[in-house]
Design brief:
This protein has 205 residues and is of the alpha+beta class. Helix content is 55%, strand content 9%. A four-stranded mixed sheet has the order 2-1-3-4, sandwiched between helices. Helix 5 crosses helix 9 and helix 6 packs across helix 7. 36% of the residues are buried.
Length: 205
């Protein structure tokens, strides 16, 4: 059975919480998963939005920020409301695409999320991304060069298109076979579904 696909967006508040939880939660159950970066902007535009719904609908936005504060406290995660929301996440997503399957990818993902939602840093700034890569032992400039190649840019476009074709409309979304589980609060349901459908634990984890 294919691993659970964890689709995430670096500008997404709930993706931040989910991305910093999923390794421990999936690992404790022995369920394999794969990181699937994509961009929400094109998905939102197809739904008729030119901005995050949390900005377009102020009441929803106020609720989200308070909810995120509560959830970060619950899970012991640092949080500082970013001064810009949503931040441009294209470069970070391209780097994540370029790092698919590599051992440094989870550390990079955590670093980007913490930069954005714990330290209020501009994750669209190549210098910030290069610094994050350096902290996990990568040659930042070289990785960014590979991430911004025409081939890798197209890869991210294809991944975002795949997300749309799967029916994904927000982030994070966990995909198990043909089933979608939207939101940080549906991670456990996705892992339960995987196990119930015969995925079972993954011995390597």
């Amino acid at each position: 059975m294919a691993p659970v696909q964890f689709w995430f967006e670096f500008a997404s508040t709930y993706s931040y919480i989910a991305a910093l939880r999923i390794e421990a939660v999936a690992g404790s159950r022995g369920v394999p998963f794969e990181w699937k970066p994509f961009l929400l902007g094109p998905i939102f535009r197809r739904q008729g939005w030119n901005d995050s719904p949390f900005n377009l609908y102020p009441a929803r936005g106020r609720y989200m920020w308070r909810d995120v504060e509560r959830l970060c406290r619950k899970h012991g995660l640092p949080f500082k409301k970013p001064t810009v929301f949503p931040r441009n996440s294209v470069l970070a997503a391209r780097v994540a695409c370029a790092g698919a399957g590599q051992g440094w990818l989870p550390g990079f993902i955590r670093g980007v999320y913490e930069a954005n939602f714990a330290h209020d840093r501009d994750i669209s700034d190549a210098a910030v991304i290069e610094e994050i890569l350096g902290t996990i032992g990568q040659q930042g400039a070289r990785v960014i060069e590979r991430a911004t190649s025409a081939e890798n840019k197209e890869r991210l476009r294809r991944e975002t298109e795949t997300a749309w074709d799967l029916g994904i409309f927000g982030a994070p979304t966990s995909v198990v076979g043909a089933e979608l589980f939207w939101g940080n609060d549906r991670i456990d349901d996705a892992l339960d579904w995987y196990s119930a459908k015969g995925g079972g634990p993954c011995p390597s984890m």
